[in-house]
C-alpha cells in the first residue's frame, strides 16, 4: 500500500511512524510534513487545505489511502472532496466534523442524545451575551468558548462576571479569534480531572483506545496559560475499569447512536474530552481526529497494524477486527520554545538528538525543519519525547532521563508530566 498523511505536527509524525510498522506499506507520503517526519515518510510541499493539489498528487502517485491529521481540512470538507473524486480517505465528512468545528452544534447534539455535559447558553449577539452575564454571580467561575475552531485558544476560564464580560468582548467585539468567535458558548464551570478518550469508529461500531491524560497549562502544577498540550500519558490510572464502562455506556454509545441517527458519514477517529463532575464523567469537547499530544502517548502502545484498522474503517467492518494494545505505559513530554504559547523565537539548532539511543524512547518532531543538514526549531511545540515502560513510574523516569540529553536555546518543558498518576 501507499499512504498519504495530511499534516505537519507531532501527531502526524506519530501516525506516519505507526503506518511504517505495517509490513504491507510500500511508501508513506506526508503533506506538508516536517524535518523529523522525513525519516519515515516523503514530505511533499502541499498545504493541508489545497484539496485539488492533494487529490492530483494522490492520483499521480497511485496512493491507496489518505489519512487526515488536523481539524481544519476536515472542517472544510476534504473527505467529501476526496470521496467525490473516488479516492479512499479516513476521516469524518464536513457535516460530521461540526462536532468539533461548532461548539453550539456539539452541545445541541449532546442535548438531543442525552450525553452528559455542562449546562450552557449560546449567543450570536454580543448584547444578548452581555445581558445574560449581568445576572451572573460576581465571583462564580464560568467558561466562555468561541464557537468555531481557534487552534486550542478559544476557551476562557473566567473567575467571575467581570472576567466573563471581558472574554465575551475580546471574542465578539475585538474579534481576537476572528470568525471563530462570531458565536460564543457560555457554560457552567466544572472542577474536576480531565481525561481523553480516543476511539476508532466507522459510524456504526467503535473501538476504544487506552484513555490518556493531557497537560494543557504551560507550567508545572497546571499553572500559566493554556497551550495545545505540554505532554500526555497513557493509559491513565484514573481511567479505572468502572469509569471506562461508565464512559462507554453513558457517552460513547450515545454518541455513536447519534452519528447513526443523524446519518453522519464518519470513518476515522473521534476524541472525547471528558471531565469528572464528582463521580460522573461529562463531555468537555469533541475532536474529530487524533488529539495532540495524546496521539504520541497512545499510538506507541498499538500492536495491531494501523493499515488493517483503516481498511476496516473504510469498509465499515471495524467490528470484524480485534485491536490489540501493549500492556505498557507511555509518557510524552513536549519540548517547547520559550515564550510559547505567546511570542517566541525560532531557528535555533536542536542538539543531542543523536544521543537518544534507548529502544523504548521515540522522538516525535512537531515544530522543526532541516537547515544545512541540521534540525532547527520552527514552531512553538518543537518535539515530543515519548518513553514506554512496564509501569508508569519507570516510564516517567526514563522519559526525563532522555529529555536531559536534548537542548536548544530557550527550551522549555514541564517537569511534572504524569505525576498525577503516581500521587497517592
UniProtKB/TrEMBL annotation:
It catalyses: 5-phospho-beta-D-ribosylamine + glycine + ATP = N(1)-(5-phospho-beta-D-ribosyl)glycinamide + ADP + phosphate + H(+). Pathway: Purine metabolism; IMP biosynthesis via de novo pathway; N(1)-(5-phospho-D-ribosyl)glycinamide from 5-phospho-alpha-D-ribose 1-diphosphate: step 2/2. Transmembrane segments: none annotated. Keywords: ATP-binding, Ligase, Manganese, Metal-binding, Nucleotide-binding, Purine biosynthesis. Its EC number is 6.3.4.13. InterPro entries: ATP-grasp, ATP_grasp_subdomain_1, PreATP-grasp_dom_sf, PRibGlycinamid_synth_ATP-grasp, PRibGlycinamide_synth, PRibGlycinamide_synth_C-dom, PRibGlycinamide_synth_C_sf, PRibGlycinamide_synth_CS. Pfam families: GARS_A, GARS_C, GARS_N. Residues 107-315 form the ATP-grasp domain. Its cofactor is Mg(2+); Mn(2+). GO terms for biological process: 'de novo' IMP biosynthetic process; purine nucleobase biosynthetic process. The keyword ATP-binding applies. NCBIfam families: purD. Belongs to the GARS family. This is Phosphoribosylamine--glycine ligase. It comes from Endomicrobium proavitum.
Amino acid at each position: 500500500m501507499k499512504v498519504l498523511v495530511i499534516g505537519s505536527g507531532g501527531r502526524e509524525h506519530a501516525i506516519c511512524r505507526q503506518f511504517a510498522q505495517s509490513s504491507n506499506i510500500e511508501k508513506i507520503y506526508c503533506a506538508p510534513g516536517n524535518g523529523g517526519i522525513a525519516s519515515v515518510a516523503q514530505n511533499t510541499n502541499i498545504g493541508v487545505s489545497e484539496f485539488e493539489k492533494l487529490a492530483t498528487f494522490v492520483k499521480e502517485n497511485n496512493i491507496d489511502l489518505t489519512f487526515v491529521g488536523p481539524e481544519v481540512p476536515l472542517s472544510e470538507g476534504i473527505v467529501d472532496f476526496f470521496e467525490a473524486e473516488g479516492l479512499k480517505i479516513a476521516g469524518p465528512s464536513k457535516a460530521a466534523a461540526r462536532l468539533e468545528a461548532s461548539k453550539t452544534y456539539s452541545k445541541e447534539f449532546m442535548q438531543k442524545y442525552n450525553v452528559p455535559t455542562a449546562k450552557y447558553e449560546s449567543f450570536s449577539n454580543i448584547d444578548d451575551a452581555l445581558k445574560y452575564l449581568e445576572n451572573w454571580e460576581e465571583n462564580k467561575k464560568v467558561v466562555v468558548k468561541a464557537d468555531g475552531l481557534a487552534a486550542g485558544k478559544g476557551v476562557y476560564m473566567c473567575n467571575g462576571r467581570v472576567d466573563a464580560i471581558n472574554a465575551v468582548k475580546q471574542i465578539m467585539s475585538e474579534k481576537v479569534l476572528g470568525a471563530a468567535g462570531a458565536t460564543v458558548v457560555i457554560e457552567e464551570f466544572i472542577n474536576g480531572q480531565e481525561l481523553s478518550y480516543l476511539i476508532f469508529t466507522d459510524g456504526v461500531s467503535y473501538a476504544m483506545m487506552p484513555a490518556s491524560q493531557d497537560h494543557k497549562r504551560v507550567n508545572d502544577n497546571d499553572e500559566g496559560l493554556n497551550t495545545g498540550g505540554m505532554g500526555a500519558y497513557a493509559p491513565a490510572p484514573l481511567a479505572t475499569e468502572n469509569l471506562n464502562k461508565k464512559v462507554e455506556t453513558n457517552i460513547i454509545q450515545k454518541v455513536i447512536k447519534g452519528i447513526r441517527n443523524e446519518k453522519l458519514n464518519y470513518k476515522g477517529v473521534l476524541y472525547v474530552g471528558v471531565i469528572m463532575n464528582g463521580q460522573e464523567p461529562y463531555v468537555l469537547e469533541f475532536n474529530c481526529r487524533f488529539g495532540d499530544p495524546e496521539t504520541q502517548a497512545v499510538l506507541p502502545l498499538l500492536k495491531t497494524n494501523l493499515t488493517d484498522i483503516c481498511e476496516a474503517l473504510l469498509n465499515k467492518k471495524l467490528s470484524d477486527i480485534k485491536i490489540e494494545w501493549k500492556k505498557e505505559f507511555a509518557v510524552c513530554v513536549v519540548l517547547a520554545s520559550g515564550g510559547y504559547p505567546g511570542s517566541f523565537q525560532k531557528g535555533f539548532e536542536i542538539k543531542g538528538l543523536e544521543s537518544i539511543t534507548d529502544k523504548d524512547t521515540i522522538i516525535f518532531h512537531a515544530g522543526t525543519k532541516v537547515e544545512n543538514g541540521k534540525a532547527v526549531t520552527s514552531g512553538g511545540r518543537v518535539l515530543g519525547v515519548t518513553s514506554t515502560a512496564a509501569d508508569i513510574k519507570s516510564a516517567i523516569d526514563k522519559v526525563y532521563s532522555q529529555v536531559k540529553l536534548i537542548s536548544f536555546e530557550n527550551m522549555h518543558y514541564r517537569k511534572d508530566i504524569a505525576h498525577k498518576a503516581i500521587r497517592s
